[in-house]
Amino acid sequence: MNNFYKAGRELPITKKHPSSKQITSKSFITLFDKVVNIPVLQIALLVILFVLVSMFSLSAQTPRKDSGADGLLIKHLKIGDTIPQALWDLKLDVVGHSVGAKQLTLRDYRNKKLIVLDFWATWCSSCIAAFPGLYKLQDEMESQVKVLSVTYQDRAAIEKFIGKSEFIQSNGLANRFSSIVNDKVLTKFFEKDAIPFVVCIDNNGVVRALAMPSELNALAVKQMIKDRNAVPVAAKVLAFDQPLLQPYYDNKIHNYYYSTLLPYGQGISQASSFEVDSTGQFKHLVVPNLNVFMQYGVALQNAENYIAGLSKIRSRRILEMNTPDSIIDRLEEDRNFWKYTYESVSPILWNDNTVYKKMESDLNFYLGMKGSYQLRDVECLVIRCTDRKKPNQSKKLAKVPTVILNGLVENDGSSDGKFLQKAQLGNDKAKNAFIGIEIKNIPNLFNLRSFSVLPFMIDETGLDERIDLSLPDNLSDIDQLKQAFVAQGLTLSLERRKMIMFVLTQDGFKDNGNAMKLTRYGYVAMRGEEAVR
């Protein structure tokens, strides 16, 4: 049985049901021989039935075209492939066209040396962050390059995005940003694990690049235009559909096993997989481009005291490091520091727990650390209700729950239209606020998001009411937060609790009993003058 794990979800592999059999002309002839002595009328009916069954069988065996528009046969295109001619004239819906057109075709821009398809969505912050760079590239080479943004989202969602997005407004793209919308075809031609994702097509229809927007620069574009054989931006996505070392072994060799820990690699998705190869007789585990905390979160999923997702919460992490400041400085300088790709090929007879135990052992060995889940005494922020007549229910219950941070809101009222836009604030409105948020969900907003550095928050009100909560400018200031909660009849108290914590201990760590301080990456021991104070 094969399992594929992506974005934390297990997806079943579809198999053909053994009872589904196809009726063939041969099986029908056998049936006909058995009834050869029946009356002529019945024979005639059987002949008609035979013709119909044959037509059905032929139809079932004829390869069908995929669900592309205008009869396009969909297949994934690689670098060097040529797009189908029909794709040049495919009518594509567009929003924000420079002359107000509702549709366009790729042929409209065949006079350009290079067309850049930029796949994106309003909820993808890194996609939106790439727009200025792509438009700058187009401006520098206007006569030769055309950028076409592409999204599956509908016209209304993108029109709202263009009109309200704070990022679009502040970067001068409000009157020039455009996008293909309602795309159901282009995305099927290019295999990608995530967005943002760009595709470069020259005016001969040849795919010249499949890459991240950050990999596409003026030098690379000029090389592709100057030399039609140049591939300066190659696909840097490692394929984990087979073990990385498999090509180095003879196909007849099945009993090879290994494990490795690789540094962060650009272009590798964060989709983990755990598959069983019955032919090669091995289990293949891949956990790509995840930080140390999440790597251990995978390896320790069968460990004592394990809680799913705990290692992602900074206020539930303890880093027992001899020089924690140096680690924190590196993390601040390089967001990819402490990110790795783990891969193992194990005997098929190993149970899953053994595979994960091997991963744990490897991480401990390679990183010089040990990860564990331990019960520790830590500070927590506890929410309670002091006045049963309060809190006051939200005045905007008809609207979706909204989080306002620094005067910006990341919600346009739809399920997939999440982007930064200016909140409609009056003089009496706070720059930070929760509008229409259930009290029981307030801790999650503080615990799981990165806008503050606070001890783990716990709700003990037992209330489900949705409230409007005005917050201070400094969301990490506990005293100011307490005042904000009091205004709603709630208390916020700092208390010590026994909590299961994810503990990452460096080899040779010496616990001097120093007090702990909470950082953006977890609790670390105070050192030097800090500890003395």
Termini distance? 58 Å
**Unreliable sequence segments:** 1-38, 51-69
Overall 3D shape: globular
Helix fraction by DSSP (H/I, runs of at least 4): 25-40%
Q: Mind summarizing the main beta sheet?
A: 7 strands, mixed
Q: How many domains make up the 3D coordinates?
A: 4
What is the topology, as strand order, of the major beta sheet? Answer: 4-3-7-6-5-8-9
CATH class of the largest domain: Alpha Beta
User: Would you identify the CATH H-level superfamily of the largest domain?
Assistant: Glutaredoxin
Indicate the CATH topology of the largest domain. Glutaredoxin
Number of helices: 15
CATH architecture of the largest domain, by name, is: 3-Layer(aba) Sandwich
Q: What is the rounded Rg?
A: 29 Å
Strand proportion, as a percent range, falls in: 25-35%
Which structural class do you get from the secondary structure elements?
alpha+beta
Number of strands: 24
Mean model confidence by pLDDT: 83
Give your account of this protein's structure:
It contains 15 helices and 24 strands. It is α+β, with helices and mostly antiparallel strands. The model is unreliable at 1-38 and 51-69 (pLDDT under 50).
Secondary structure layout plus pairing:
Blueprint: E1 3-6, E2 9-12, H1 25-34, H2 40-61, H3 85-88, E3 92-95, E4 103-104, E5 114-119, H4 125-129, H5 131-140, E6 145-150, H6 155-164, H7 166-170, E7 179-180, H8 186-189, E8 197-202, E9 207-211, H9 218-226, E10 258-263, E11 273-277, E12 282-291, H10 292-299, E13 317-320, H11 324-333, E14 339-347, H12 352-367, E15 369-385, E16 402-405, E17 408-409, E18 421-422, E19 432-438, H13 442-448, E20 456-459, E21 466-471, H14 478-486, E22 490-506, E23 516-519, E24 522-525, H15 528-532
Parallel strand pairs: 5-6, 6-7, 13-22, 15-20
Antiparallel strand pairs: 1-2, 3-4, 3-7, 5-8, 8-9, 10-14, 11-12, 12-14, 15-22, 16-17, 16-19, 17-18, 19-21, 23-24
